[in-house]
Amino acid sequence: MTLMSYLGAIGAAQREAMDADSRVIIMGEDVEANVYGTTGGGKSRADKGDFVQIYGRERIRNTPISEEGIVGIAAGAAMTGLRPIVDLSYSSFLYMAMDQFVNQVAKNRYMFGGQASMPVVFRSAMFYGLNTGAHHSDRPYPMFMNVPGLKIMAPATPSDAKGLLRTAIDMDDPVLTFEACLLWGSKEEVSEEEYRIPFGKARIAREGTDVTVVAISSCVPEALAAAEVLAAEGISVEVIDPRTLVPLDTNAILESVSRTGRLVVTEPAHKTCGAAGEISAIVAEEIFDSLKAPIIRVTAPDMQIPFSPALEKQMYPNRITIAQAIRKVAGVA
Amino acid sequence: MTTVEKDLLFEMQRRMLRIRYFDERASKMVKRGHIPGTVHTSIGQEAQVVGATMALGDQDYMSGNHRSHGHPIGKGSPLGPLMAELVGKATGVCKGKGGSLHLADFAVGSLGESGIVGSSIPIAAGAALSSKVLGKKHVSLAFFGDGAANQGVLYEAMNMAGVWKLPVIFLCENNQYALSTPAHTVTSGVIADRAAGFGMKGVRVEAGQDVLAVYEAVSDAVAQARNGEGPTLVEVVTYRFNEHSEGLRIGTDYRDGDEREEWLKKDPIVLFRNYLIQNALFSAEELDQLDADVLAEVDEAVRFTDESPYPEPETAFHDLYTENQEQFA
Fold it and tell me: What gap in Å lies between CA A142 and CA A151, rounded to an integer?
């Protein structure tokens, strides 16, 4: 085990995969210079671990700023033997390539009757909460959950970031991974050995008996902090991190809510048609009789993200708003 | 002329005839309701299609567009599973999931046609990236029309192919109309000239009804790509004889009546037949026999289609992912 940051864990998974399989390549804007910290070992090209030095420019490819072309070329490459990891930097940039994601990446295997496989991973970071304004702050994973054919992961810890990304790279289906910048610096002990975390398998981040909180991405540490506060108030909170949204581990969520009878779902995306809405609907459809109180969603409002720190701070769920929702669903607020 | 070359010429005529008769039959089947939806025929454009596909090797890749049947036929795909796909049968090349607009036959390097104009261009460029990185000698070709020539993604792909020297040919099938819109009214300059902006070779084949002219131009581009010298933009001037799609009736005459008559005189199959006879390469009888053989092939494809079952409803829930399919049913 070694202490790794979330970003460091992503870099470690990429390096593992690059070492294991020569068909894996990394392409994207600024990947050569290790601008985002996942394709290098240090501050200098000469430092140990620099991806260009290790793998060369044939496999570490800087791209022009051409998201539609990048995604389409990665898709064509994946259909013909390569296993690209595409670094799209900010998740707000994914929209530039929407046609390729929806009409090619997601549909080709299905439309062509299973002839194509699409082993490609699209990485992007959600830069919210960092005063970058409306064009850089998106959390767009729910839009992509609405596209059958894509798989979606949103790791919340360094260990998950490493193990899920490795699974994603090894997988023959297209995966979009959404990495929260707020988590980039978070650190924990991570195994340096190769390991893979299966998709569709939730993690019980904290066990509890009174209320289930399903938390996504950066809402996981916030939900855990809220659970800690509420434990002192005598409310036992179970926190579930689905880890992957497509496929979604509905069994783990239903099992937990069956026990607690109370559900709060929290995520940094907008409220309408979000993952929280989907999870709430599944629980209401499947185990309505188990519910002792109405489900509460704690999400970003259906509003664009303002620039000023004075305005932005209030836009995302935090430990206080999550705790309030838990008290309410527990009937003590 | 060697036997190999002679055989190749005969094969060109065979594939052009396959496209013609396949599409004529498909057109009838649409109008009679035997093919659901519609189809976009390559009738009139056979020289452009076959000249390009036959310049490719068996292992080479291609992607295409909504005018979709000619590409896999030209690349050597058998007709039965293609026709079955148009009708939506289980034996279709895409098991009835794709239909006319989304034919693909990976066995012959056909990576898929696309119903979204321009969308499949980077797919071919991506296949070229695979060839390069994996050290294969495969070349890719992206078919697109004059309409797609004004999509931004073409230029993103051309730029990346140029800077990475990818073995890819961007083949513009300029049939002069994007549905009803004349290309010259929405296209600034000459499409082939746009290659210069990328430091790329651009070739305009004016004689796009002449299969040998197209074959020669594309063969040069293929040789260049295979030698690691990078991509080429080839624009082929051609004309579609039929409507944009079969059964489509457009109220306004967007094509000059005389214009179409003039182009009908430049039927690529008639032109090539005359060439083969005049140069004493094949007799009229041999070519008549070829005609009959191809018609019989199309009949056989229709018989295969008729005798094939429709897919079982549950297969609609297969093939989305490679694994864990049951989770999504």
Answer: 11
